[in-house]
Amino acid sequence: MGLTFYNDTRTQLVALTGAPPNASLNGVTLSVNREMRDDLSGYASVSYSSGNEFGGHDEILFANVGFNLALSETLSLYGYNRFLYHTAAQVSVGPGYQATDDETVIGIRRNF
Fold first, then answer.
1. Which sign does the torsion angle of CA 68, 71, 72, 78 carry?
2. pLDDT tens for each residue of 49-104
3. CB 3.0–4.6 Å: which of 25, 26, 39, 62 could bond 47 by disulfide?
4. What does the alpha-carbon distance between residue 94 and residue 111 come to, in Å, rounded to a whole number?
């Protein structure tokens, strides 16, 4: 299990017209990995970040969950789902927006 906090503060060398020269990003991530059996492991994480960049404010929520099942020494079945929610407001380089993305993948992996 992991918990990570992060902060990033930057000063742009060449500021965009109409945008303040400073930017900041703050966030937190919670993650967990678990071996449920010798051949089956899983993971999950959720992240949230809030930024002030380009004269505006944005927020991002990202979550994912997945598994890996060993079928043999060289083959494994894996799957994951990722969800992203992003919103931005008062951004000087374009209009505000809100976006979501949800992706599910299932596959077979072969190791050589």
1. negative
2. 999 876 778 899 999 999 999 999 999 999 999 999 988 876 555 566 678 999 99
3. 62
4. 45
d(CA 83, CA 91): 23
Return the C-alpha torsion angle 35, 30, 46, 27, nearest 10: -150
Give dist(CA 29, CA 2) in Å, integer. 8
Name 108's bridge partners: 77
| 9-16 mean pLDDT | 73
| Beta-bridge partner residues of 84 | 62, 101
Strand bridging mode 75-89 / 56-70: antiparallel
Structure-token pair, residue 69: 């099942």
State the sign of the Cα–Cα–Cα–Cα dihedral 76, 34, 86, 58: negative
Nearest of 111, 108, 105, 33 to residue 69 by alpha carbon: 108
